[in-house]
Design goal:
Layout (H helix, E strand, L loop, with lengths): L5 H53 L11 H10 L3 E5 L5 E4 L17 H9 L1 E7 L6 E8 L15 E7 L1 H51 L14 H56 L6 H33 L7 E4 H18 L3 E4 L7 E4 L1 H17 L6 E8 L3 E8 L21 H6 L6 H11 L5 E5 L3 E11 L3 H10 L1
Parallel strand pairs: 7-9
Antiparallel strand pairs: 1-2, 1-5, 3-4, 4-5, 6-8, 8-12, 9-10, 10-12, 11-12
Helix pairs in contact: 1-4, 5-6, 6-10, 7-8, 8-10
Length: about 500
């Protein structure tokens, strides 16, 4: 097989791309226009069919017989530029605007026509096909006569009303459009061929030199060097390739490290998912086997299974959040907002959880409005995680305090608790995924092992860091900082009003 040069391949690719785009675009536009025209025709015909049914029912064309009203019906059909057909329940044509009444006996039975069959099933039907009567392509719309009109006026004995219009106009427009699209595409192909030939000749020489060096690298020569000969994109590419070679060994090491982390992560996920699933399965199997007769014990099993499903749901939610954060799918919507008002709202929403656990949740008061920059929603997720952890791992009748400290260019938000504290040897790892200081207690209170990892990622997305200070037996304090700005106009007005 003959090997194509880079120049020829560039030309070929450009022409092929343009050809594909031209053909695909032309076909798509053609089909869309065809669908559009047919849809418009269908709705127009549906309107006219409804109109014909009504006019026939109220005697607008007379009430004696179809034969007596033949001319009026033909005139109406010509007015709407369509063929009008009336069909009885056996499929026999009792009127056709393009056929004389005395010739109807020669018209085929229409009971098996697609539009008639669809109308019989659904009340209304449409089809595009070649007419066996007039030998041309038509678009049909048929309607089953409604029960209230079935015996009214000229509709006595008529089961279906059908209109048909020729597709010549639509097909002519589409043919003209296709010629214009493909004609323009042909001229563009010729122009692109000339431009591609000129451009490719200027690119191939330096690229061939790069190819020789790349071949050396391919053979294992990691000391190969790309010598930039110009300051254009090719020169920049040479420098980038040199940087790439310098970092290649580090990248390999990093990939191996990431592979190990992924394996550990998958193992942790499998373990964390299997625990609640097996627990729920065990409770349900016990109930299904009818081994538990006591209603209170049955209810206890159901409640435990429900708690496990909630834990599973929380775990999946956290997994989705941390995955979105790490892949960059979770974007931060940075806005300035007043911190004390925001903290008040968050603490109010968390009071119920604190009261249920017998914990006092307090917000340190402040009379100085401060505006900070951050994503309110994601920061609410951070605060909720920190406060809920402080509640879950607190002592009986403990306290949780939330507040902020004002610095020159930042404010520091803190969450302090009177809980059991975190041993010093665990402090460096508590932000790792699935790391737990007390695994049994964490599972007992519904922890997923991902909350602090999510907190860490969100805070770092705000160009900050989470700090933790803890003493065993006394409690823990988590804090992070946010950038602030001067008082907003609204805050200034409030300050003046309070003064």
């Amino acid at each position: 097989m003959m090997k194509l040069s880079l120049r020829h391949r560039l030309i070929f690719v450009h022409l092929l791309m343009l050809l594909v785009v031209t053909v695909a675009g032309g076909l798509i536009i053609s089909y869309q226009l065809e669908d559009y025209y047919e849809s418009r025709l269908f709705h127009q015909l549906k309107t006219h069919v409804d109109e014909v049914e009504y006019l026939l029912a109220v005697g607008a064309f007379g009430t004696n017989s179809l034969a007596a009203s033949y001319n009026l019906l033909v005139d109406y059909a010509e007015t709407v530029n369509a063929r009008l057909t009336l069909i009885d329940s056996l499929g026999v044509v009792v009127f056709e605007s393009g056929v004389k009444m005395d010739s109807l006996r020669f018209v085929e039975n229409h009971g098996s026509r697609p539009e008639v069959e669809m109308a019989a099933r659904e009340g209304f039907g449409g089809a595009r096909r070649l007419s066996a009567t007039v030998k041309e392509r038509l678009f049909y719309a048929a309607k089953k006569v409604s029960p209230r009109h079935r015996s009214a006026g000229l509709l006595a004995g008529v089961e279906f009303v059908r209109l048909a219009v020729p597709l010549d106009e639509v097909e002519a427009v589409l043919r003209d459009l296709r010629w214009k699209i493909f004609g323009g595409g042909g001229m563009a192909l010729l122009l692109i061929a000339l431009v591609s030939y000129w451009a490719s000749s200027r690119l191939t020489a330096p690229i061939q030199k790069l190819a020789h060096v790349a071949e050396s690298v391919k053979k294992g020569d990691m000391e190969a060097h790309f010598a930039p000969e110009s300051r254009d994109e090719i020169g920049e590419l040479s420098e980038l390739l040199n940087d790439m070679l310098a970092k290649l060994r580090d990248d390999v090491k990093q990939m191996r490290k990431l592979q190990t982390m992924r394996s550990q992560f998958l193992g942790n996920v499998s373990h964390e998912l299997s625990t609640p699933i097996f627990a729920v399965q065990g409770y349900l199997e016990t109930l299904l086997d009818d081994k538990v007769k006591d209603e209170k014990l049955q209810k206890s099993f159901i409640e435990k299974a429900y708690r496990q499903t909630k834990r599973l749901n929380n775990l999946l939610t956290d997994l989705i959040d941390i995955s979105r954060i790490e892949t960059g799918d979770m974007k931060m919507s940075m806005r300035y907002f007043e911190i004390h008002e925001w903290l008040t709202k968050q603490i109010t929403e968390l009071q119920a959880t604190a009261q249920q656990n017998g914990i006092t949740l307090e917000l340190t008061p402040s009379n100085t409005p401060v505006n900070v920059l951050g994503d309110r929603e994601r920061l609410a997720q951070v605060l909720t995680n920190l406060v809920e952890n402080a509640i879950k791992y607190n002592v009986t009748e403990g306290r949780v305090e939330v507040g902020y400290k004002d610095f020159v260019e930042e404010i520091e938000i803190f969450v302090s608790d009177t809980g059991r504290g975190i041993p010093e040897e665990h402090l460096g790892r508590i932000f790792e995924r699935f790391y737990r200081v007390d695994r049994e207690r964490s599972r007992a209170v519904g922890g997923t092992g991902l909350g602090l990892a999510i907190v860490k990622h969100i805070v770092e997305a705000h160009e900050s860091h989470v700090h933790v200070h803890s003493q065993v037996g006394k409690g823990s304090t988590f804090s992070f900082r946010l950038k602030k700005m001067g008082e907003s106009p609204l805050a200034q007005i409030r300050s003046q009003a309070l003064a």
